[in-house]
């Protein structure tokens, strides 16, 4: 699946490991880098690298958190807001390929089980 996602997102210079950060920022901005790591259950170093890449590509910007100068708030740039629908379409195409021959109900059960496994691993 990661190979398919990488191929789909290559035109936007977004790696398969970075799109999830972009999508979470899009749905909950502003968000701190720390909160983003916690929400995704991903270590701070990996989050920092992904955000740095998205920032380098011009999709994300950081601003000092007015409530606490030790943290930065993450926002999408104009380019980030423009690319989100394209990323969603790409992910939709990959999801369609992975669902071939599986009913919606079976897919939902499968995803639910994967979420439980992830939750168990994060405890």
CATH class: Mainly Alpha
Residue-averaged pLDDT: 91
At CATH level 2, the architecture is Orthogonal Bundle
Q: How many DSSP helices?
A: 6
The assigned structural class equals: mainly alpha
Q: Termini distance? A: 26 Å
Strand content: 5-15%
Net shape: globular
Radius of gyration: 16 Å
> Main beta sheet, described?
3 strands, antiparallel
The amount of helix comes to 55-70%
CATH H-level superfamily: Winged helix-like DNA-binding domain superfamily/Winged helix DNA-binding domain
Helix/strand order: HHEHHEEHH
CATH topology-level name? Arc Repressor Mutant, subunit A
Strand order of the largest sheet: 1-3-2
Features:
123 residues, mainly alpha, Arc Repressor Mutant, subunit A, three-stranded antiparallel sheet, 10% strand, globular
């Amino acid at each position: 699946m990661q190979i398919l996602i990488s191929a789909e997102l290559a035109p936007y210079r977004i790696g398969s490991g970075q799109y999830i950060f972009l999508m979470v920022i899009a749905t909950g901005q502003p968000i701190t880098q720390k909160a983003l790591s916690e929400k995704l259950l991903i270590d701070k170093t990996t989050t920092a690298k992904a955000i740095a890449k998205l920032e380098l590509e011009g999709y994300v910007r950081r601003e000092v958190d007015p409530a606490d100068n030790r943290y930065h708030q993450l926002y999408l740039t104009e380019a980030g807001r423009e690319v989100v629908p394209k990323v969603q379409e790409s992910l939709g195409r990959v999801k369609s390929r992975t669902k071939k021959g599986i009913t919606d109900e079976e897919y939902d059960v499968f995803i639910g089980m994967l979420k439980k496994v992830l939750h168990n691993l994060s405890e």
